[in-house]
Design a protein that fits this description.
This protein has about 260 residues and is mainly beta. The chain is built from 2 helices and 15 strands. Helix content is about 10%, strand content about 40%. The strands form 3 sheets. Strands 1, 2, 5, 6, 11, 12, 13, 14 and 15 form a 9-stranded mixed β-sheet that branches. The chain is globular, with a radius of gyration of 19 Å. It starts with 10 loop residues before the first helix and ends with a strand.
Length: about 260
């Protein structure tokens, strides 16, 4: 069977999709009621950048996790840049902070006298050249399709990638690659997901180049999702934040492309 891949040239579609990719992940955490949960992202795109701080709730409880509104949040880099973030609409955000690949960023969060810190180094950008569809498997003579992000991994070891996909109107679970497989080669792996794609599906893929601690965090999280335990079975990914906080802080590059399945 022959497939044709169409890319959407309209920048408005990319703009809509990039807005939909909010860097907030629902964390299937162990039952540690009242623990500080930090989700922080800084990208190579123009700011503002956002830090979300909440307190964990017991799995039996319902409703949104409560936002922490009284934190002192400071973002800095290895070049002397520093900014105290402002709280608005449930999140802390920067105003003038700038970013660049290769820089190391430090996040400091103080809540009720306890300070939580994290460092993340933004890798160099590895270009996402295109997306293509492939047949993952056949079920009852029907092709189950996957999406391959086409990029060339650098020869130097130690490259890590996070992929976030949006299928038409909802987000899929994030997945990670490392160059432990196919180092220095053009990628041919499709992005794992718990569901395949069908004709006329619109799939947006964001590719992030991430550092090793962030990869370790999302590697555990993605396996939980693929094993069917996302959001239901407790799991605490290895946080890169000090003092026992849950969550992650990531400085990464970001690229998004769209494909319509044919």
């Amino acid at each position: 069977m022959k497939y044709i891949v169409k890319f959407l040239p309209a920048f408005l579609l990319l703009l809509c999709v990039s807005c939909a990719f909010e860097d907030v992940v629902e964390l299937p955490i162990k039952e540690k009621d009242g623990k500080i949960v930090i989700e922080g992202n800084i990208t190579d795109q123009p700011g503002p950048y956002f830090i979300r701080i909440t307190r964990s709730i017991k799995l039996a409880q319902t409703g949104e996790t409560p936002a922490v509104k009284n934190a002192k949040v400071i973002l800095s880099d290895n070049n002397g840049q520093t900014e105290t973030l402002e709280f608005e609409n449930g999140m802390y955000h920067t105003t003038n902070f700038t970013s660049h690949p290769g820089n190391t960023y430090t996040l400091s969060v103080t809540v009720d006298g306890t300070t939580y810190t994290s460092k993340s180094t933004m890798p160099s950008l590895v270009p996402l050249n295109s997306l293509k569809q492939v047949v993952r498997e056949q079920v009852d003579s029907a092709d189950i399709l996957g999406v391959v992000p086409v990029f060339t991994d650098p020869v130097e070891k130690g490259n890590y990638y996070l992929f976030k996909m949006r299928l038409t109107d909802h987000d899929l679970d994030p997945q990670v690659f490392s160059d432990n497989v196919d180092n220095g080669m053009v990628n041919t792996r499709f992005i794992p997901s718990t569901t395949g794609f069908r004709k006329n599906d619109t799939v947006a893929v964001e590719m992030q180049c991430i550092d090793n601690p962030v990869y370790n965090y999302f590697s555990v999280l993605s396996q939980a999702y693929l094993n069917g335990s996302g959001g239901t079975t407790p799991v605490n990914p290895p946080s890169n934040i000090s003092n026992g906080a849950l969550g992650y802080f990531s400085a990464h590059t970001s690229q998004t492309k769209i494909i319509i399945i044919q």
